[in-house]
Write a structure and sequence with these properties.
heterodimer; A: mainly alpha; Ferritin; 8 helices; B: mainly alpha; disordered N terminus
Chain lengths: 185, 146
């Protein structure tokens, strides 16, 4: 069961409309290295973790990633709020607008829609936890690309926070990986 | 310019904390600062700035936002300690910190909900039904984040 808190994990207040950045940031919603993929990957894997440490960690990181999905969607929403049709067209978002308006639809920055293959749940503990470690590094790299693409502090602040969370999650998964290796998996 | 003069990736690979946490300083004496929340982690050793950038503090415009920021900070501390304790459940020093913050969060949340309305749809300490009231967390009206 999940409990909703009427707050974000980290405050987001973007005052400047920026359709270009919205088009890139949405990849952390629906891209292969994004937060939706991360959350659902760990959520799916938690059921077959072999001990309490693994069950707890996968469950709890999956839950935090749900909060990150909300943060990313909030950023995209605030960056696109009150956009005119003309502005959307100029930013190359007319095809997105055709299908989805300015609502949130999970896709990557190239426009590819989210797919369940990103879940990457194998049933093998070592393969799963290795996958999770790699996923955190890939997400960190994407956050760094996004930070390089903007100079708006309102956008960089939450991106830096989310990037550091990937670093922390990687470290926890690495500790879990070492723990399972010691147990002989 | 991508990755030019940028060794942060290497630093990260070299700096995996692992089990040395258990024998090392727990930063017991360190005062818990808002900076730890803003940068996104509680343990100094795990923090890796990107290209010299540490954090950008959120802007606070009124008392309600300030009160909520305190709640967000406590909540964040619990999230980070919680993940750490999942893998290191025997660490009583961090467990005690966790318990202390959990109590603060409970108190601050009660105060906040009395003043402004519910933060959770199972809170009921208010006279009229305020749960549906805007702004919701993703709203940007007037820069509010609740």
């Amino acid at each position: 069961m999940f409990k909703y808190d009427k707050k974000l994990e980290f405050p987001i207040n973007i005052s400047k409309k920026d359709l270009r950045m919205a088009k890139y940031i949405i990849t952390q919603f629906g891209g292969s290295n994004g937060e939706l993929a991360a959350s659902m990957r760990y959520f799916s894997q938690k059921f077959t973790m072999p001990d309490d440490k693994g069950r707890a960690l996968l469950n709890d990181i999956a839950t935090e990633e749900l909060g990150h999905i909300e943060m990313i969607c909030t950023m995209v929403h605030q960056l696109t709020k009150d956009a005119t049709l003309d502005e959307l067209e100029k930013a190359g978002l007319a095809s997105y607008y055709t299908e989805h308006g300015v609502s949130l639809y999970p896709s990557d920055s190239l426009g590819n829609p989210f797919t369940a293959t990103y879940f990457a749940s194998t049933g093998d503990v070592i393969a799963n936890v290795s996958e999770d470690m790699a996923a955190e590094q890939k997400a960190r790299a994407v956050y760094e690309s996004l930070i390089n693409l903007t100079d708006d502090d309102d956008v960089i602040g939450p991106l830096l926070f989310l990037r550091q969370r990937e670093v922390v999650h990687f470290n926890r998964f690495k500790e879990l990986y070492d723990h399972y290796k010691k147990l002989g998996y | 310019m991508l990755f030019e003069n940028d060794n942060s990736y290497l630093d990260m690979v070299m700096n995996i904390p692992g089990l040395d946490y258990l024998n090392n300083s727990h930063e017991q004496e360190k005062e818990e600062k808002y900076e730890d929340f803003y940068r996104g982690n509680m343990f100094d050793k795990e923090f890796i700035p990107y290209k010299g950038m540490t954090y950008i503090a959120p802007k606070v415009k009124n008392e309600k936002q300030k009160d909520l920021l305190t709640i967000m900070k406590c909540n964040f501390m619990l999230i980070d300690y919680n993940l750490y304790l999942d893998v290191h459940p025997e660490d009583t020093i961090i467990l005690n910190k966790y318990k202390k913050v959990a109590k603060t969060l409970e108190d601050k949340t009660k105060e906040y909900e009395k003043k402004y309305g519910p933060l959770c749809n199972t809170s009921a300490d208010y006279s009229t039904y305020k749960w549906i009231e805007s702004p919701w967390p993703w709203n940007k009206e007037d820069g509010k984040y609740v």
